Amino acid sequence: MSRLVLFAGQRFGRFAILLFVLPLLVPLGVWLYFLDTHPLVIIAGGAVAIPAAMLSLVLLIGMVFAGFRRRKIEGVSRQSVPRLWQMWEDLAGRCRASRTKIVLSPDLNASIGEERPFLGLLGRWYTLTIGIPLLAVTDEPALAAILAHEDAHLRNKDTNGGLNMAEFDSCFEMIFDYAPPGRTVSGTVFYWMLSPLSKTLEREENRLSRRAEIEADRHAAQTGDALGAARALLLVGAASMLFKERVDDPLRRELLGSMTAPEPPLARTLKAALDLTDAGVLGTFVQKAWHEPDDEASDHPPWPERLAALGYNSPPTIEPVRETALSKLLRDDTIAERIRHFDGEWTSRVSDHLDR
């Protein structure tokens, strides 16, 4: 059943909600059929048929309006990061770049997403999210390989299934807004019906995501060079291990006994990133990333598997970053403003939590 739902969601998007609407309409049909002949039974059956009909109506409304309008996301303008925009335009083409919004984030990651507002009548729009820490641990060639990887997701149409599933999920968001689980009987029953599917669907989505990552890695290597793509992957892998050891774990320990918000994570991350300019430190954390156990819950394959797709059975020796993409592609005032913004948000959340 879960494979059928996943296939339908990826293939038909919002319209896959009909798999749930039609069974919900069955009690209403039976109820209407016996309405004149068995009035006493119908009175009791209405307690099931009418809520089921209301749920199906809400699902149909969600099917029509899911993703109807574009999300309001704050992006960066061409004037503030002209070289980053130019790099993306060179890779993706002018037409696709003109329909892209570039967003900076506080994460060590880059991702690409699609939207089809107004039922796709106005075409597709793209959101390219690039983490400031990612820019701090890569240089322009490595970042170009990463952006080629993201562009490969679009060219391979990997995002189509994700976009369809996002619209499919939006239909359920509307029904749970209408009938919150735990507060309404119908919402609780419907949530209970979906629960057995959730874990299986998550595993299937992770499997497909991992396969898409491997294909995108191969595409990025074909458009450039395999060593460049491998170097970009290892720089990110080494950075993830370094940040976990020197930023995330110490910060988690500090928060356990803290009465006030400690130094925010992005500022710490950018300081720690400077250590990766040392070849010895970089090599150490490349090895740690290579031997990191596979997280089965992750939607990304382990580093050895991704490097194997590029033809490497062991981590190649790579040169450390001399001039970061952060310093070359972003203006100092843009960097400072984004750091203040992200660290300010984090400090505010932590302070509110500690005050409770």
Number of helices: 15
Q: What is the number of beta strands?
A: 3
Percentage of helical residues?
A: 55-70%
Query: What is the average of the pLDDT values?
Result: 84
Name the strands of the widest sheet in spatial order: 1-3-2
Walkthrough of the structure:
There is one protein chain. By secondary structure, the protein is mainly α. The chain has a domain at 2-69 and 165-206. The chain is built from 15 helices and 3 strands. The protein has helices at 2-12, 18-33, 39-65, 82-92, 94-98, 132-137, 140-155, 158-178, 185-223, 226-256, 265-273, 279-290, 303-309, 325-329, 332-355, and strands spanning 100-105, 110-115, 125-131. A 3-stranded mixed beta sheet has the order 1-3-2. Helix 10 crosses helix 11. The two termini are 44 Å apart. The mean pLDDT is 84.
